[in-house]
Amino acid sequence: MKSKDIHILIPTYKRVKALAVTLTSLYYQAEKSFDIVISDQSDDNILEEDQTIQTIKRLLEIKGHQVSILKNLPAKGMAQQRQFLLEQSTSKYSLFIDDDLILDDYVVQNMKQTLEKEKIGFVGCAVIGLSYKNDVRPHQQNIEFWKGEITPETIVPNSNEWERYRVHNAANIYHVSENSKATPDKPIPYKVAWVGGCVMYDTEKLREIGGFSFWRDLPEKHCGEDVLAQLRVMKKYGGCGIIPSGVYHQELETTVPDRKVNAPEFLEI
Protein backbone atom coordinates (compact mmCIF):
# COMPACT_ATOMS: atom_id res chain seq x y z
CA MET A 1 0.00 0.00 0.00
CA LYS A 2 1.29 3.45 -0.94
CA SER A 3 2.34 5.56 2.03
CA LYS A 4 0.28 8.63 2.81
CA ASP A 5 1.80 12.08 2.27
CA ILE A 6 1.83 12.79 6.01
CA HIS A 7 2.32 10.93 9.24
CA ILE A 8 0.81 12.80 12.18
CA LEU A 9 2.87 11.95 15.26
CA ILE A 10 1.41 12.49 18.73
CA PRO A 11 3.28 11.94 22.01
CA THR A 12 0.87 11.47 24.92
CA TYR A 13 0.85 10.87 28.65
CA LYS A 14 -2.32 10.57 30.76
CA ARG A 15 -4.42 12.97 28.70
CA VAL A 16 -7.30 10.85 27.48
CA LYS A 17 -9.93 13.58 27.30
CA ALA A 18 -7.61 16.11 25.67
CA LEU A 19 -6.34 13.55 23.17
CA ALA A 20 -9.93 12.66 22.24
CA VAL A 21 -10.59 16.30 21.36
CA THR A 22 -7.37 16.52 19.35
CA LEU A 23 -8.20 13.39 17.36
CA THR A 24 -11.72 14.66 16.70
CA SER A 25 -10.28 17.81 15.13
CA LEU A 26 -8.12 15.62 12.88
CA TYR A 27 -11.27 13.83 11.69
CA TYR A 28 -12.48 17.07 10.11
CA GLN A 29 -9.28 18.03 8.27
CA ALA A 30 -9.55 19.11 4.65
CA GLU A 31 -6.29 17.25 4.01
CA LYS A 32 -7.01 13.54 3.49
CA SER A 33 -3.61 11.93 2.89
CA PHE A 34 -2.41 11.18 6.41
CA ASP A 35 -2.06 8.40 8.95
CA ILE A 36 -1.64 8.84 12.71
CA VAL A 37 0.81 7.34 15.19
CA ILE A 38 0.27 7.90 18.91
CA SER A 39 3.10 7.10 21.31
CA ASP A 40 1.67 6.53 24.77
CA GLN A 41 3.85 6.61 27.87
CA SER A 42 1.05 6.13 30.39
CA ASP A 43 1.57 3.16 32.70
CA ASP A 44 -1.83 1.63 31.92
CA ASN A 45 -3.93 0.63 28.89
CA ILE A 46 -6.47 3.43 29.17
CA LEU A 47 -6.27 4.42 25.48
CA GLU A 48 -7.14 0.88 24.41
CA GLU A 49 -9.94 0.69 26.99
CA ASP A 50 -11.47 4.15 26.61
CA GLN A 51 -14.52 3.95 24.36
CA THR A 52 -14.33 7.59 23.28
CA ILE A 53 -10.78 7.15 22.00
CA GLN A 54 -11.70 3.89 20.30
CA THR A 55 -14.77 5.42 18.63
CA ILE A 56 -12.75 8.32 17.20
CA LYS A 57 -10.08 5.86 16.09
CA ARG A 58 -12.70 3.84 14.20
CA LEU A 59 -14.15 6.97 12.60
CA LEU A 60 -10.72 8.04 11.37
CA GLU A 61 -10.11 4.53 10.02
CA ILE A 62 -13.43 4.63 8.14
CA LYS A 63 -12.08 7.73 6.40
CA GLY A 64 -8.98 5.79 5.40
CA HIS A 65 -6.56 7.00 8.08
CA GLN A 66 -4.59 4.29 9.85
CA VAL A 67 -4.35 5.04 13.57
CA SER A 68 -1.63 3.23 15.52
CA ILE A 69 -1.41 3.44 19.31
CA LEU A 70 2.01 2.31 20.48
CA LYS A 71 3.60 2.00 23.91
CA ASN A 72 7.03 3.56 24.42
CA LEU A 73 8.23 2.54 27.86
CA PRO A 74 10.19 3.07 29.98
CA ALA A 75 10.05 6.82 29.50
CA LYS A 76 13.46 8.32 28.67
CA GLY A 77 12.51 11.94 28.11
CA MET A 78 10.68 13.87 25.39
CA ALA A 79 13.53 13.80 22.87
CA GLN A 80 13.52 10.00 22.94
CA GLN A 81 9.73 10.01 22.69
CA ARG A 82 9.92 12.18 19.57
CA GLN A 83 12.70 10.08 18.05
CA PHE A 84 10.59 6.97 18.62
CA LEU A 85 7.72 8.62 16.76
CA LEU A 86 9.96 9.82 13.93
CA GLU A 87 11.16 6.25 13.41
CA GLN A 88 7.53 5.22 12.74
CA SER A 89 7.06 7.73 9.92
CA THR A 90 7.20 6.42 6.36
CA SER A 91 5.78 9.60 4.82
CA LYS A 92 7.33 12.55 3.01
CA TYR A 93 6.11 14.85 5.76
CA SER A 94 5.94 14.33 9.52
CA LEU A 95 3.61 16.49 11.59
CA PHE A 96 4.32 16.54 15.33
CA ILE A 97 1.38 17.79 17.38
CA ASP A 98 0.84 17.90 21.11
CA ASP A 99 -1.97 15.86 22.65
CA ASP A 100 -3.93 18.90 23.86
CA LEU A 101 -4.60 20.91 20.70
CA ILE A 102 -7.59 21.69 18.50
CA LEU A 103 -6.84 22.15 14.79
CA ASP A 104 -9.08 24.10 12.45
CA ASP A 105 -9.98 22.15 9.31
CA TYR A 106 -7.47 23.94 7.03
CA VAL A 107 -4.38 23.53 9.21
CA VAL A 108 -2.82 20.28 7.97
CA GLN A 109 -3.50 21.11 4.32
CA ASN A 110 -1.94 24.58 4.61
CA MET A 111 1.18 23.22 6.29
CA LYS A 112 1.65 20.58 3.61
CA GLN A 113 1.12 23.08 0.79
CA THR A 114 3.64 25.46 2.35
CA LEU A 115 6.31 22.73 2.49
CA GLU A 116 5.55 21.71 -1.08
CA LYS A 117 5.84 25.29 -2.30
CA GLU A 118 8.82 26.52 -0.28
CA LYS A 119 10.96 23.32 -0.20
CA ILE A 120 12.09 24.14 3.35
CA GLY A 121 12.73 22.00 6.42
CA PHE A 122 9.67 22.77 8.51
CA VAL A 123 6.57 24.90 8.91
CA GLY A 124 4.80 25.61 12.18
CA CYS A 125 1.39 26.80 13.30
CA ALA A 126 1.75 28.53 16.66
CA VAL A 127 -0.78 27.50 19.32
CA ILE A 128 -3.27 30.06 20.54
CA GLY A 129 -4.51 30.37 24.12
CA LEU A 130 -8.03 31.70 23.72
CA SER A 131 -8.29 32.59 27.41
CA TYR A 132 -6.06 35.52 26.35
CA LYS A 133 -8.37 36.58 23.51
CA ASN A 134 -9.05 39.93 25.18
CA ASP A 135 -5.48 40.37 26.41
CA VAL A 136 -4.00 42.40 23.56
CA ARG A 137 -0.22 42.87 23.82
CA PRO A 138 1.04 45.15 21.02
CA HIS A 139 4.55 45.16 22.53
CA GLN A 140 4.79 41.40 21.85
CA GLN A 141 3.34 41.40 18.36
CA ASN A 142 6.32 42.29 16.23
CA ILE A 143 6.36 39.99 13.22
CA GLU A 144 8.55 39.86 10.14
CA PHE A 145 7.01 38.28 7.07
CA TRP A 146 9.06 36.38 4.53
CA LYS A 147 9.21 38.19 1.22
CA GLY A 148 10.37 35.98 -1.60
CA GLU A 149 12.39 32.82 -0.99
CA ILE A 150 12.61 31.40 2.53
CA THR A 151 16.30 30.90 3.28
CA PRO A 152 18.26 29.10 6.03
CA GLU A 153 18.96 31.01 9.23
CA THR A 154 21.28 30.39 12.16
CA ILE A 155 19.54 31.40 15.38
CA VAL A 156 21.01 31.03 18.85
CA PRO A 157 19.58 31.69 22.33
CA ASN A 158 19.54 35.30 23.51
CA SER A 159 20.12 36.74 20.02
CA ASN A 160 17.88 39.43 18.53
CA GLU A 161 16.20 36.78 16.36
CA TRP A 162 15.52 34.69 19.47
CA GLU A 163 13.08 37.38 20.61
CA ARG A 164 10.72 36.34 17.82
CA TYR A 165 9.29 33.77 20.22
CA ARG A 166 7.27 36.50 21.98
CA VAL A 167 4.75 36.69 19.15
CA HIS A 168 3.73 33.13 20.07
CA ASN A 169 2.85 34.00 23.66
CA ALA A 170 -0.78 34.05 24.86
CA ALA A 171 -3.08 34.94 21.91
CA ASN A 172 -0.62 37.23 20.13
CA ILE A 173 -0.59 35.29 16.87
CA TYR A 174 -4.40 35.35 16.85
CA HIS A 175 -4.39 39.13 17.15
CA VAL A 176 -1.67 39.48 14.49
CA SER A 177 -3.72 37.35 12.11
CA GLU A 178 -6.80 39.45 12.71
CA ASN A 179 -4.86 42.58 11.80
CA SER A 180 -3.28 41.09 8.67
CA LYS A 181 -4.60 40.07 5.28
CA ALA A 182 -3.94 36.40 5.97
CA THR A 183 -6.84 34.04 5.30
CA PRO A 184 -7.08 30.23 5.40
CA ASP A 185 -6.90 30.11 1.60
CA LYS A 186 -3.98 32.58 1.49
CA PRO A 187 -1.69 31.86 4.44
CA ILE A 188 1.33 34.10 4.96
CA PRO A 189 4.75 32.76 6.02
CA TYR A 190 6.73 34.62 8.67
CA LYS A 191 10.11 34.38 10.38
CA VAL A 192 10.36 32.39 13.61
CA ALA A 193 12.83 31.41 16.27
CA TRP A 194 10.88 28.21 16.77
CA VAL A 195 7.27 27.02 16.95
CA GLY A 196 5.83 24.94 19.78
CA GLY A 197 3.13 22.31 19.66
CA CYS A 198 2.35 21.93 15.95
CA VAL A 199 5.22 21.57 13.48
CA MET A 200 5.38 19.74 10.14
CA TYR A 201 8.81 18.66 8.90
CA ASP A 202 10.13 17.40 5.63
CA THR A 203 10.90 13.96 7.05
CA GLU A 204 14.17 13.40 5.21
CA LYS A 205 15.45 16.86 6.08
CA LEU A 206 14.71 16.24 9.75
CA ARG A 207 16.43 12.86 9.61
CA GLU A 208 19.39 14.33 7.77
CA ILE A 209 20.25 16.59 10.72
CA GLY A 210 19.87 13.65 13.10
CA GLY A 211 16.24 14.03 14.12
CA PHE A 212 15.97 13.77 17.89
CA SER A 213 18.75 11.21 18.26
CA PHE A 214 20.50 13.68 20.54
CA TRP A 215 18.26 12.33 23.31
CA ARG A 216 21.19 10.15 24.35
CA ASP A 217 23.20 13.29 25.14
CA LEU A 218 20.54 14.77 27.42
CA PRO A 219 19.53 13.89 30.96
CA GLU A 220 16.13 12.19 31.08
CA LYS A 221 14.47 15.31 32.47
CA HIS A 222 14.78 18.05 29.88
CA CYS A 223 12.78 20.44 27.72
CA GLY A 224 13.37 22.32 24.45
CA GLU A 225 14.08 19.22 22.37
CA ASP A 226 11.65 20.42 19.70
CA VAL A 227 13.35 23.82 19.69
CA LEU A 228 16.80 22.30 19.18
CA ALA A 229 15.61 20.13 16.29
CA GLN A 230 13.98 23.13 14.59
CA LEU A 231 17.08 25.30 15.02
CA ARG A 232 19.22 22.62 13.42
CA VAL A 233 16.79 22.12 10.53
CA MET A 234 16.44 25.89 10.03
CA LYS A 235 20.20 26.32 9.95
CA LYS A 236 20.49 24.00 6.96
CA TYR A 237 17.13 24.15 5.19
CA GLY A 238 15.12 27.07 6.51
CA GLY A 239 11.78 27.10 8.28
CA CYS A 240 8.80 29.36 8.92
CA GLY A 241 5.51 29.86 10.69
CA ILE A 242 2.26 30.63 8.89
CA ILE A 243 -0.79 32.71 9.73
CA PRO A 244 -3.61 32.22 10.25
CA SER A 245 -2.51 29.49 12.62
CA GLY A 246 -5.83 27.80 13.29
CA VAL A 247 -4.35 25.83 16.20
CA TYR A 248 -5.76 26.25 19.69
CA HIS A 249 -4.33 25.10 23.00
CA GLN A 250 -6.55 23.39 25.54
CA GLU A 251 -4.43 25.16 28.16
CA LEU A 252 -3.71 22.18 30.38
CA GLU A 253 -0.77 22.04 32.75
CA THR A 254 2.45 20.76 31.22
CA THR A 255 3.40 17.11 31.60
CA VAL A 256 7.08 18.21 31.60
CA PRO A 257 7.32 20.29 34.81
CA ASP A 258 11.09 19.97 35.28
CA ARG A 259 12.54 22.46 32.78
CA LYS A 260 15.98 23.10 34.27
CA VAL A 261 17.79 21.46 31.32
CA ASN A 262 16.89 23.30 28.12
CA ALA A 263 18.23 21.40 25.10
CA PRO A 264 19.31 24.42 22.97
CA GLU A 265 21.40 25.72 25.88
CA PHE A 266 22.77 22.27 26.72
CA LEU A 267 23.83 21.05 23.24
CA GLU A 268 25.39 22.67 20.19
CA ILE A 269 22.98 23.98 17.55
Task: Tell me briefly what this model is.
The chain has 9 helices and 11 strands. It has 269 residues and is an alpha/beta fold.
- Helix tally equals 9
Strand line-up in the sheet with most strands: 3-2-1-4-9-6-10-8
The coarse overall form would be globular
Distance between the termini: 38 Å
Describe this structure in words.
- The protein is an alpha/beta fold.
- The chain has nine helices and eleven strands.
- The strands form two sheets. An eight-stranded mixed sheet has the order 3-2-1-4-9-6-10-8, sandwiched between helices.
- Helix 1 (16-27) runs parallel beside helix 3 (51-62).
- The longest helix is centred in the last third of the chain and has 13 residues, at 225-237.
- The chain is globular.
- The mean pLDDT is 96.
